[in-house]
Design a protein that fits this description.
By secondary structure, this protein is an alpha/beta fold.
Length: about 575
């Protein structure tokens, strides 16, 4: 072990960690780079250095080449970055790894440009499947098609043969079933849908095949679950996809069986990606406590996190719960999944048990319901409220943890401006996916009308109100690449946006700066999972999670952000993805 010269330490970024790590020698030094450390991202001038030293799985120091290279010991590996752009690994605050993996293994309809293309893909999968095997998967999006008409059970019947079939729309909030699947679930024109769901009927009163939100579950419960090997194969594909696009951490909403497979991968040293796994808000409280206790909460690679609940559906399927009817369907205001008293009682019970809560809420009514429930959880714990009533310091009456509240609203696509102020007052995090705008901007204003659309996807309004933003992709609803989201956040333009006649923008006054968007995708996301002291920056003592890119995100023209390629992904000081490699190390 080497002891460093005190004068040298003053020139290098050791910050508050210097006393603990100053006697260490780096295992790896990367130099002659353009390194965005993450310091100053939320200010006027982000910190750029040329060298970084890694000891074990942590950052030891960052600074100038000469200063950092002087820390080298005989065993230290030196690597010349040749000017390459290096930055903290990206943290996707909202993914569905299990769903992404199974979509890859089943019927993947992502990007299908017409009903005919969709049916061709289904037909090909049916021909490869054993007789009677369920066809599942999805990713279709009828708004991409020329006529924008929803598919029907009759369409599916033409190509599915004897295979019961249920295929989800890209947003996961409506699905189309064939006749065989509807019969298996005893769904008819006289069936009553559960709260938060509905069955589309044709002119004769018979099901069209379109099932919305909770009604989908009536068919889903009949589908044989994937085998262990299928779960593992799907997760391995989804994790590899994430790592190849520069994600070093994700906050995931999969199932418990998938979590057990993740544990298996971790024990075998094959996980590679840091995962915080969400638990289902609606599960019984005793079951949730057992799930939380099952795995070490301090495991830096894998642990359980917040409870995920659903307030409503999606704008694309017109199931998002709105305060006023849809502009293009005046008889419909969407579907709320809870009544307020029940929601409040469940939220208070789970808050008292020490759980962070996150609610999927896309419509303004859904967001208001979520905020009302969060307010109830604070009122339930007055004995711990500080005198100054500052919500950022509130610690709920949690028996096992006292981290303070960091409740979240996932998506928050349409929110009443008055409710944005309530985010700030209650300390609620806006966990948003700016890439959704690239898909939704073609029809969102039709759904909402111009006045309501003006405060949709309103990232800047949250920041201006002092609300913490955490960015993600909602993979596989959107591609896992974070660079689409970064592009959307800073341009609010379509993917053809080059400033010419083909460029469309969506309320451009809500653009973010590049540093604001990067902050939300790194430190904002880390804050949302209570990891801001270990993730999101390249500073002494932080996780050595970083990525090498083929271009400088701070200086390239905005349109080029979409073309960004990841050259290498490093998690805990180890390379877990390298462009052009046959397989991950």
């Amino acid at each position: 072990m080497r002891l460093f010269n005190t004068a040298l330490l003053a020139t290098i970024s050791f910050a508050a960690f210097a006393p603990q790590i100053s006697a260490q020698s780096p295992d790896l030094i990367l130099f002659h780079g353009t390194i965005l450390t993450g310091e100053g991202l939320n200010g006027a001038k982000p910190q750029i250095v040329s060298a970084i030293a890694i000891a074990g799985d942590k950052v030891l120091a960052v600074g100038a080449d000469a200063d950092i290279k002087r820390l080298a010991a005989p065993q230290t590996k030196l690597r010349d970055l040749q000017g390459a752009f290096l930055m903290p690994g990206l943290n996707d605050a909202h993914v569905h790894l299990g769903g992404a993996g199974q979509t890859k293994l089943n019927v993947d309809l992502t990007g299908a440009q017409s009903l005919d293309e969709m049916l061709d893909r289904i037909k090909a999968k049916a021909a490869q499947s054993p007789a009677g095997h369920w066809l599942t998967g999805g990713g279709w999006d009828h708004t991409l098609w020329a006529n924008k008409t929803l598919p029907s059970r009759q369409d599916l019947d033409k190509v599915t043969g004897d295979h019961p079939t249920l295929l989800e729309r890209i947003d996961g909030h409506i699905a189309v079933a064939n006749t065989a699947a509807l019969k298996a679930a005893n769904i008819t024109g006289k069936s009553n849908a559960p709260q938060g769901g509905s069955i589309d009927l044709d002119a004769s009163g018979e099901p069209t095949g379109i099932l919305r939100d909770t009604e989908m579950e009536e068919v889903e419960k009949l589908i044989p679950p994937p085998t262990h090997d299928e779960l593992r194969q799907g997760l391995e594909l989804a994790i590899a996809d994430a790592l190849s696009h520069g994600l070093t951490s994700v906050q995931d909403n999969s199932g418990w069986d998938e979590f057990l497979v993740m544990e298996e991968l971790e024990k075998e040293g094959k996980l590679g990606l840091r995962i915080t796994e969400w638990l289902p808000f609606a599960a019984p409280i005793d079951q949730l406590k057992e799930m939380r206790a099952h795995h070490d909460q301090n495991d830096p690679m894998l642990h359980t996190g917040m409870l995920k609940g659903f307030m409503d559906g999606s704008l694309g399927s017109r199931t998002a719960a709105l305060k006023a009817p849809y502009a293009d369907e005046p008889s419909n205001s969407g579907l709320a999944r809870y009544d307020q008293p029940k929601l409040n009682a469940m939220a208070v019970e789970r808050a008292r048990a020490g759980f962070q809560i996150g609610f999927h809420a896309i419509g303004d009514k859904a967001a208001a319901m979520a905020l009302d429930a969060f307010a109830q959880t604070y009122d339930a714990c007055p004995e711990l409220a500080p005198q100054d009533k500052n919500p950022y310091k509130v610690e709920r009456c949690w028996p096992t943890v006292a981290k303070g509240h960091r409740d979240r609203i996932e998506h928050a696509q349409v929110v009443d401006p008055a409710d944005i102020a309530r985010f700030k007052k209650l300390g609620v995090i806006a966990s948003m996916q700016p890439n959704h705008l690239l898909t939704d901007m073609n029809w969102a204003q039709d759904r909402l009308g111009p006045q309501r659309a003006a405060y949709s996807y309103a990232w800047k309004a949250y920041l201006d109100a002092g609300v913490v933003l955490a960015f993600g992709t909602d993979y596989p609803v959107e591609p896992v690449t974070p660079f689409r989201g970064l592009y959307a956040a800073v341009t609010r333009a379509n993917e053809d946006g080059k400033g010419g006649a083909g460029t469309k923008t969506y309320f451009p006054e809500s653009k973010l700066t590049r540093t604001q968007a990067l902050y939300a995708y790194t430190q904002g996301s880390a804050y949302a999972e209570f990891d801001e002291k270990t993730k999101g920056k390249l500073a002494p003592g932080f996780d050595a999670d970083f990525i090498l890119l083929d271009r400088n995100l701070l200086t390239i023209p905005a349109a080029e952000i979409l073309k960004t390629q990841v050259l290498e992904t490093i998690v805990g000081g180890k390379t877990v993805y390298q462009a052009g490699a046959q397989k991950q190390p």
